[in-house]
Model the fold of this input.
Amino acid sequence: MARPLSKRIRTGVGAYIFLLPHLFFFALFVAAPLIYGMIMSFHDWRLLGEPRFIGLDNFSRVWNDSRFWETVKNTVFFSAVSVPLTVVLGVVLALILNQKMYGKLWPLVAFVSPAFFGSIGILFSWRWILGSQPAALANYYLKQIGLISDPMSWFKSATFAWTWIIMITAWWIVGFSVLLYIGALQRIPQEQYEAAKIDGAGPWKRFVHVTLPWIRNVMFFDVARHVLLAFGLFDQVYILTGGGPAGSTRTMVYYLYLVGFERQQLGRAAAISWYIFMIVIAFGLIQLALLTQSVRSAEVE
Amino acid sequence: MGMKKILLVIFALFFLASLVNAKVTLTFMTPLAGEDGAYMDKIIQRFNAEHPDIEVVHLVLVNDLEYKMKLSTGVATKQAPQVLFTRKYVLPAFKDLLKTFTADELKQYGIDVNDIYPGLIEGLIENGKIYGIPLDCWIFYMAYNRGNFVKAGLDPDKPPTNREEFFAALEALKKVTPQGVTPYYENPSWSWIWVHYLWQFGGDLLTPDFKEPAFMEPGAKALRFMMEMQDKGYLPKASVDPGPVFLGGQSTFLITGIWTAAAFKQALGENFGAAPAPQLGTHKAVFGGSHVLALTKIMVEDPAVLKAAMTWVKYLWDHALEWYAAGQTPARISIAQSQELKEKLPHIYAVAQQLPYVKTFQMFPILSEVLDAVAVHLEDVLVTRKLTPEKAMQMAADEVRDILEDYWSSQK
Done:
C-alpha cells in the first residue's frame, strides 16, 4: 500500500535536514568555488582592478601556450616514472612484510608512517637534508665518511632534480599502498600457493600466476590513485626546486600557481585549472573502463 | 552619580592623552633574510629608540612571489605595508599603487635624487614623478683568491681588468687549480651571469619599448664567449655549485654579486680579493640591481602616517653607510666617492667605482618570465651542447615573442 504523501514528504524532509550540514559545506567549499572558477575563466580577472569579460580568450591562450604544454609533458613524465616505481615498491614491501618474521612491526611503521605525515614537514626536512651548503646533512655526513670531497648541489640539473623528486615522492607515499597490498595478500588462500608448489612452480611463477591475479583489482585502484596524485604534483616542486632548474620541473599545477599568483592573472589560472580537470577526467575514464573490464574478468574467472 | 561623573572625566582625559601621544606604527616590508635582515633590524631598533613617536615593524618576505602577493592583497584590503624596500625589478607591475613625488618634493624631505647614480634611478621616474628611491646597489664584482695568485706567480694587487689580462691570469692559474676544478668555477647556466655578459656585449633583453626581444645577436656572442672559456678549461662545462669550491680555495675567480663579499672575506681572510668585474666584452657594463624604497599610496593618505614614513625613509637615506656594511654598494654618488667609505669599507669602495656604468634589468612587469624563457635554453648550449648559441637564442626569442604578445594583448 502506498504511503500517504504527507508521510513521504516528512521522511524526505527529515533526510535532507540530516544532510544539510554536509550540503552546506559541499556548497561552500566545492560547488561555489567550481562555479566561481568557471565564471573567472571567462574574464581577465586580476587581484586589483575590475574583471573584464573576454569570452574564450583565456582558454585559447592556454591552448597556444607552449610553456603550459611543457608542464603537461613534465607532469606526464613524472607520472610515467613515479607511478610504476611506487606501485612496484609497494608490492615488494608488502610481500616482504607479509612474511612471518620477528620484529616486522618496526619496518612496517618505518615504511608506512611517512604517508600519514603532512607535506610541509616531510619536504622541508628533505630540503634541509639535501641542501647544497657544506653544513647540510647529506653533504656533511657524506664528506665525513669520504664518499664526496666537495658539497654537492643535489638539484643542479633537471635529471638530478627529477630523480630526487621521484624518489622522495615514492618514499613518502608508498606507505598507504603497502597497507593496501598487505590486506590483499592476506586474502590469498595458502592452498593456491601449495598447489602451485606441488606443480613445480618457482617463486616467480607463483607470484605471476597466484599473487598477481589476486591483487590485480587493488593494484588498479592503487595505480589510479597514484596517477591522480601525480597529476596534482605541486608541493614537491614548490618546496624542493621552485620549478627549476630553469623551469625544467614545472608541473601543470605549479604553472597554474605561477600564472595565478606570480602574474596575478586569476582568470587565466582558472582556465588552466579546467584544462587540468579535463586531462585528469580523461585519464580517470580510461582507468574506470579498464577497472570495470578487470573486475568483470575476475568475476568470470 | 558623582562617582560616575568622576570616572567619565578620568576616562576622557586618558583618551585625550592617548590621542596626543599617538604612536604611528609603520610596517616596513623587505626581502632581507639572514645577515642582511639582521643588519636592517639593528638600524630599525636604533631608529625606534631615537623616535619614540614612530614604531617601525620589520616584515620580511624573502620570496618575490610572496612579496608581490602580500602587496597586492594588502592594497586590496587596505592592510598593505606603508613602506616598501624591494628589489627594483619587482616594482614595474606595482607602480600605480605607489606614492609619487617630484624631485622638489623629495628635496624638501632632505632627499636629493641628483645624488643617485642615473643607472639606478632610471625607470623609476615617469612624467617627472618618482615612485621609488634606490638606497643601494647589489652589483657584480670579481672575487679572487690572492693566495692562488701568488702561487701562480701573479701580482695579487693587480687583478685583471680586461679580457686579455683575464685570460692570461686564467691560463697561469690552471697549474695551481686541482683536477676537476677550473680557475673560474661558476655555474654556466646561472642566468644572471649570462645577462652580465649580454650587457658587456652591448645587448639587452628587450627593445626599449618592450615590444620585441633584443638579445639574439649579443646573447649568442655572450654564449660563444662563455663556450670559448669552457673549451680553454677556464669555466666548467657542467652545472656546478661554485661557492664551496671558491671558499675552499680551490678555484680563484668568481664574478658574482657583492652580497657574497662578507661571507667570502670571513672564509678567506687575507686571501680574499675584491675588484671591479673585468670588462670582457665590447661594451663597458656591469650587472647590478637595487633595493628601492617606496611608499604604498593607499596606506599613506593620512598626513601623520606620510610624515612618519618619510621620516623613516630620510633616516635610511642619512644612515645608508651603516646599511652598506651588510654588503651593498651605495646608490648615492657622494657616498660612493667619499673618503669615509674608502676608510670604513675599502672593498665596497673598490667595487663601487663601477657604479657609473652599472646596468639594471629593464622595468618591464614580467621581465622575470622573459628571462626564464631564455634561461631554459642556456643549459642546452653551455652544458649539453645540444644547440648552437644562435639556434638557442632564436628559440628563446620565439618564446619571448609569445610572452610579449600575450602580455600586450591583455593591456588593451
